[in-house]
Amino acid sequence: MANLRAGMVGIGSMGKNHVRNLRAIEGVDLVAIADAAGKDPYGVAGDLPVLPDVEDVIKAGVDYCVVAAPTKFHEEIGLKLAEAGVSALIEKPLAYDTAAARRLADAFSSRGLVGAVGHIERYNPALQSLRKRLENGDLGDLYQIATRRQGPFPARIADVGVVKDLASHDIDLTSWVTQRDFEWVAARTMFKTGRQYEDMVSATCSLSGGLMSNHLVNWLTPTKERRTYVTGEKGMFVADTLTADLTFYANANVATVWDDIANFRGVAEGDVTRFAIPKPEPLRTEHETFRDAVLGKPSDIVTMEQGAKVVQVCEAMIHSAATNEFVRID
């Protein structure tokens, strides 16, 4: 069977990593690269010319294309790929707003094409292991999920704020690992760096089944933090996606003879288990998963429908912060 022919649009700081993985995975040949700037700042094009736009990538005869252009161009590029019958993996967020994201999702699904969104955290080994353990009931009833995604401002981000750039990761992973849907959103944002977009958000949300979530996200912290905490009936899981470590803090069963304390129905510290799990590169796993989907194999991609829902929740956070109101997710 011939290898799939892949194209790449956008070879900036994220695009260069996509190019590396497209060349590394089996069954795929990278045959065309485009960048609107016409430059190759990281020297990743090799013997391929840097084409001016997505039309030239389509003319090269590709089976699928990866898009890592600025968010405001995602809809235009994606619709051209869909019209040409080319499947696509588009970096997150899927589009600049919910309406555009839904148009993209409809364009690909109506043509029977594979459309996916690059929410890379789904493929982090710690979160993949966490989802399996939650599915197995290792935590029992779920009470709360909290995420902390903080760090310095990345100068490369110019067209969206911290909600759509960073909080979008946490929105997707929260819904995915718990298999719950967002229902209500309340948020506060801050603007501290002089840009038109928010650089800090604190959100409290309600998901289906009564699950509560909290999210702290900013570009104002001098050191990176990427952690997910899931608390439930049997204890707490902590996933550190910077190190791909997963740790379980169990609730202890301790017999208490002192009546006043015994009547307090709380929890006590139990055993702590740090799991030994394989740690493949998340982006490599994302590419292999998308390749398999294009080949028609069972594959857990982040669908464009799911990507559009993430954009909707992002916009609900922004709207909540602007209006001081809870926002319902339809």
UniProtKB/TrEMBL annotation:
<feature type="domain" description="GFO/IDH/MocA-like oxidoreductase">
    <location>
        <begin position="128"/>
        <end position="237"/>
    </location>
</feature>
<dbReference type="InterPro" id="IPR000683">
    <property type="entry name" value="Gfo/Idh/MocA-like_OxRdtase_N"/>
</dbReference>
<feature type="domain" description="Gfo/Idh/MocA-like oxidoreductase N-terminal">
    <location>
        <begin position="4"/>
        <end position="119"/>
    </location>
</feature>
<dbReference type="GO" id="GO:0000166">
    <property type="term" value="F:nucleotide binding"/>
</dbReference>
<protein>
    <submittedName>
        <fullName>Inositol 2-dehydrogenase</fullName>
        <ecNumber>1.1.1.18</ecNumber>
    </submittedName>
</protein>
<dbReference type="InterPro" id="IPR051450">
    <property type="entry name" value="Gfo/Idh/MocA_Oxidoreductases"/>
</dbReference>
<dbReference type="Pfam" id="PF01408">
    <property type="entry name" value="GFO_IDH_MocA"/>
</dbReference>
<dbReference type="InterPro" id="IPR055170">
    <property type="entry name" value="GFO_IDH_MocA-like_dom"/>
</dbReference>
<dbReference type="Pfam" id="PF22725">
    <property type="entry name" value="GFO_IDH_MocA_C3"/>
</dbReference>
<dbReference type="GO" id="GO:0050112">
    <property type="term" value="F:inositol 2-dehydrogenase (NAD+) activity"/>
</dbReference>
<dbReference type="InterPro" id="IPR036291">
    <property type="entry name" value="NAD(P)-bd_dom_sf"/>
</dbReference>
<keyword id="KW-0560">Oxidoreductase</keyword>
